[in-house]
Amino acid sequence: MSYEYYQEVVDDFEKLLTTEIGYDVIIYAGENESMKELYAHSNILCTRSQYFRTAFSNKWAEKNDGKFIFKKPNVSPEFFKVILRFIYCGKIDLTRLQGPEVLKLLIVVDELNIQSLISCIQNHLI
């Protein structure tokens, strides 16, 4: 007999994101006074996104004290939190965003090349 506990796995990944345990990526999202530090795990980011696989390769990666440093001043911390939640948990609530915000999020997600989220946002807009 075989059992599957997908929701338990998703919940555990969400805990990883919210508790910041064992992170090895520091993301600087936003700029100036709106900039925030976010924490993530390179294994999860690389598994879910070709963009991050390339970003964390030897030729692109910036490291400090064993942690990858990833700077995205053109992406608001709020958008990056939405994207990270999708990467970690496969969850997104686009109803909390206004039309122009959804379009801005689509532009960011396209830059990060997260195809499943691009499709999700496009379907939401249609």
UniProtKB/TrEMBL annotation:
What Pfam families does this protein's entry cite? Answer: BTB (PF00651)
Checking CDD domains in the record gives: BTB_POZ_ZBTB_KLHL-like (cd18186)
Q: Which Gene3D superfamilies match?
A: Potassium Channel Kv1.1, Chain A (3.30.710.10)
UniProt lineage: Eukaryota, Fungi, Fungi incertae sedis, Mucoromycota, Glomeromycotina
Q: Spell out the protein name for this chain.
A: BTB/POZ protein
BTB domain: which residues?
A: 23-96
| InterPro entries given in the database record | BTB-POZ/Galectin-3-binding (IPR051481), BTB/POZ_dom (IPR000210), SKP1/BTB/POZ_sf (IPR011333)
